[in-house]
Write a structure and sequence with these properties.
The chain is built from eight helices and eight strands, in the order βαβαβαβαβαβαβαβα. The protein is of the alpha/beta class and 224 residues long. The chain has one domain (2-223): Aldolase class I (TIM Barrel), CATH 3.20.20.70. An eight-stranded parallel beta sheet has the order 1-8-7-6-5-4-3-2. Helix 2 (47-57) links the parallel strand 2 (29-35) and strand 3. The longest helix has 17 residues, at 152-168. The chain is globular, with a radius of gyration of 16 Å. The protein starts with a strand and ends with a helix. The mean pLDDT is 97. The structure holds D-xylitol-5-phosphate and zinc ion. Zinc ion (ZN) is lined by residues 6, 31, 33, 66, 179, 199.
């Protein structure tokens, strides 16, 4: 199970310090929530901040950019140039999904598509052979600290079946990532559904305990 800390709930004024803490605790993915104030009702950061973070951290981490933006087709290259290794794009935010997914791959990044809670799984299945990852949103995107939506189970199980069939036929393995409301109390259940990559924001970055203490609790839950 990959644990990808979401920096949305980190201290954005001291981002590199919080990210280093995650890397020092043994994590090697960083989930970068890019919001444009248009596709989602919140605004975070873009390529210049990501470029500075890459400079501060060197090559240590996989930069996983969750692009909650309109017009990703016009600017995805900027995120790759800033140091992102992986880009995930929302199926709801682009008309030409297949074109965008293949363009990102051709530009040298790994690629994922994201499904909002109200979006059927079919759009991801249509491009599954082109993907490295499908991100299932278990909250409506825009904010950290929201409650997990359990109805996503059906979508995840459908994806798992389709990915297993693709791999059995010699096709590409695809990670199932989940994002929103993931905590120690539900992470083992998500693993049993077939999730292999969990984004965790407020479950790691909070005022109750340090990141490494929170991570220990999550690891114990996964082992138990
Ligand atoms: C929501 C973001 C998530 C969020 C996760 O739009 O995509 O990555 O920050 O935060 P938690 O884990 O607190 O739900
Ligand atoms: Zn996210």
């Amino acid at each position: 199970m990959i644990i990808a800390p979401s920096v949305l709930t980190a201290d954005l004024a001291d981002l590199a310090t919080d990210c280093r803490e995650a890397l020092d605790a043994g994590l090697n993915w960083l989930h970068l929530d890019v919001m444009d104030g248009n596709f989602v009702p919140n605004l975070t950061f873009g390529p210049p901040v990501i470029k500075s973070l890459r400079k501060a951290l060197g090559d240590r981490a996989v930069f996983d950019a969750h692009l909650m933006i309109s017009n990703a087709e016009l600017c995805f290259q900027d995120y790759i140039d800033a140091g992102c290794n992986h880009l995930s794009v929302h199926v709801e935010a682009t008309t030409h999904l297949h074109r965008l997914v293949t363009a990102i791959r051709d530009a040298g990044a790994t690629v994922g598509v994201v499904l909002n809670p109200g979006t059927p799984v079919d759009a991801a299945l249509e491009v599954l052979s082109e993907l490295d990852l499908v991100l299932v949103m278990s909250v409506n995107p825009g904010f950290g600290g929201q409650s997990f939506i359990p109805a996503v189970e059906k979508k995840i199980r459908t994806l798992k079946t389709a990915i297993d069939a693709q791999v059995a036929a010699g096709g590409r393995p695809v990670q199932i990532q989940i994002d929103g409301g993931v905590k120690a109390h539900n992470i083992a259940m998500l693993q049993s559904w077939g999730v292999s990559n969990c984004v965790v924001g407020s479950g790691l970055f909070n005022d109750k305990a340090s990141l490494s203490e929170n991570l220990d609790v999550i690891h114990t839950a996964l082992q138990g």
